[in-house]
């Protein structure tokens, strides 16, 4: 291969091409080794440009009439919708029933451990709560007796526990066995209460003929009689009330146990177990308008311990209601009850805060938030009108009797215009319809057979659903507070 000329020492003329010739010769010589020469791609010329076309300018184009209408219609509807939404919100806000009266705290109990004497009282000094002792079933055919025992109501870990337990392991006593509740409180809690045994009031006044001896024996004694089919109550439980402190009217230590209008609030966990019936509710201090339900009843919360499989609103439901009516055969509760449910968990699995708001214009019950309303009842018409009661009824003796309006001289709030006190209890079973026939594996029929005996006979069905841990079988209450309207007596 010929050497390339040195550009600095060997000048090359324009006609001389030794390097190029040498490279070309070398390439030709080796053509048989390297193959044919590489072909170059043919250049592709761009197509000739099309002549310029005029494009109409947007600002000179006449708009589509439909587009203009759609544009303005969209914005008009948006603005109108926003305005109507704002108006609705304002009207709804103004229409929400709120208690705007200043509130004064009159009762508070945080159930601090070791505070048993102040909570339950002693033999000589009443406490904030009365342990009601009664075997009567409280008019509902309940199967439990309520006791003054610390097995059924006690303080633990700064909480109040109301726990149902078995009497005699849930088995009937021998025929002829009599159970006398020596600490029975019927003489205190009966209508016109305050009686000592013998028909005298606690202050020494009164007539012995006024005392309900039949009611006393029913409430304070029970005998197992195989022939009659009666048994001693198979369950023991607890029922606590502020009746005694309500009658005392003391406000100096936040222990006045009643209000007429105001607010009640408590934090509680419901019990778990078939046929358990927890409730926190209120009754009138005095039956101003007559015997129940004429003087009213406020059920702040009731529930059932049955699980999710129960078909009549089990432990994932809580209910609020009002009971009222001109006599015991006519109760308007069907027009004044509602409930709240949690589809994801039971109310026995955690604590919830329940609240009652009560004025002469409305009554509202809610759980955790006003948005979770158990009952919202406006007092916008008389309760007798609301009830649409018949002019006559057939009484228990088969006689037609005229229905009288017990509230004819009252207001739209009557009978819920009096002082009411607070009750907390865990009932078991009953024949009043709270547990309807034909729902779940109910072992008794409300008005057939012998319900208490049938209930005990079905213990193999409901017994395993009662948790062994009393913390889960109990209604547990964290605190209770009551406020009244500051201007009220």
TrEMBL record:
In this chain the GH16 domain maps to 156-488
Keywords from UniProt, A to Z, are: Hydrolase, Membrane, Transmembrane, Transmembrane helix
Q: InterPro entries this protein is in?
A: Beta-glucanase-like, ConA-like_dom_sf, Glycosyl_Hydrlase_16
Report the GO molecular function annotations.
hydrolase activity, hydrolyzing O-glycosyl compounds
Sequence intervals crossing the membrane:
69-91
Give the UniProt record's GO annotations in the biological process aspect: carbohydrate metabolic process
**Annotated family:** Belongs to the glycosyl hydrolase 16 family.
PANTHER family per record: GLYCOSIDE HYDROLASE FAMILY 16 PROTEIN, GLYCOSYL HYDROLASE-RELATED
What is the name listed in the Swiss-Prot or TrEMBL entry for this protein? Glycoside hydrolase family 16 protein
Q: Tell me what organism the protein belongs to.
A: Roridomyces roridus
């Amino acid at each position: 291969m010929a050497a390339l000329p040195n550009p600095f020492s060997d000048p090359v003329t324009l006609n001389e091409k030794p390097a190029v010739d040498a490279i070309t010769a070398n390439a030709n010589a080796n053509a048989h080794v390297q193959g044919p020469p590489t072909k170059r791609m043919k250049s592709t010329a761009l197509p000739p440009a099309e002549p310029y076309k005029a494009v109409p300018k947007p600002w000179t184009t006449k708009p589509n009439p439909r587009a203009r209408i759609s544009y303005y219609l969209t914005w008009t509807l948006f603005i109108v919708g926003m305005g109507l939404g704002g108006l609705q919100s304002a009207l709804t806000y103004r229409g929400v029933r709120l208690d705007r009266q200043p509130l004064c705290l009159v009762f508070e109990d945080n159930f601090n451990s070791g505070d048993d004497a102040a909570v339950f009282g002693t033999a000589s000094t009443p406490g904030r709560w009365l342990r009601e002792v009664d075997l009567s079933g409280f008019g509902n055919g309940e199967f439990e007796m309520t006791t003054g025992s610390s097995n059924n109501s006690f303080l633990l870990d700064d909480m109040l526990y109301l726990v149902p337990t078995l009497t005699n392991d849930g088995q009937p006593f021998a025929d002829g066995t009599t159970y006398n509740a020596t600490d029975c409180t019927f003489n205190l809690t009966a209508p016109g209460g305050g009686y000592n045994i013998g028909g005298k009031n606690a202050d020494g006044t009164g007539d012995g003929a006024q005392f309900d001896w039949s009611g006393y024996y029913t409430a304070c004694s029970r005998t197992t009689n195989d022939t009659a089919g009666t048994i001693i109550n198979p369950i023991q439980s607890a029922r606590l009330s502020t009746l005694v402190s309500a009658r005392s009217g003391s406000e100096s230590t936040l222990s006045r146990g009643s209000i007429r209008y105001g607010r009640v609030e408590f934090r509680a966990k419901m019990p778990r177990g078939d046929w358990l019936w927890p409730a926190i509710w209120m009754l009138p201090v005095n039956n101003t308008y007559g015997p129940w339900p004429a003087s009213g009843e406020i059920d702040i919360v009731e529930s059932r311990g049955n699980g999710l499989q129960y078909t009549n609103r089990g432990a994932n439901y809580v209910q609020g209601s009002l009971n009222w009516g001109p006599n015991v055969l006519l109760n308007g509760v069907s027009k004044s009850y509602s409930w709240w449910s949690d589809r994801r968990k039971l109310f026995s699995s955690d604590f919830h805060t329940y609240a009652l708001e009560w004025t002469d214009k409305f009554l509202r019950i809610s759980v955790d938030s006003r948005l979770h309303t158990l009952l919202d009842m406006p007092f916008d018409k008389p309760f007798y009108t609301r009830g649409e009661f018949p002019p006559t009824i057939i009484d228990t003796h088969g006689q037609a009797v005229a229905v009288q309006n017990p509230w004819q001289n009252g207001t739209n709030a009557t009978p819920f215009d009096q002082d009411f006190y607070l009750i907390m209890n865990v009932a078991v079973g009953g024949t009043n319809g709270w547990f309807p026939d034909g729902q779940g594996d109910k072992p008794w029929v409300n008005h057939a057979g012998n319900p208490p005996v049938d209930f005990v006979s079905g213990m193999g069905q409901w017994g395993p659903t009662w948790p062994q841990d009393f913390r889960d079988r109990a209604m547990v209450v964290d605190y209770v507070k009551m406020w009244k309207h500051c201007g009220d007596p």
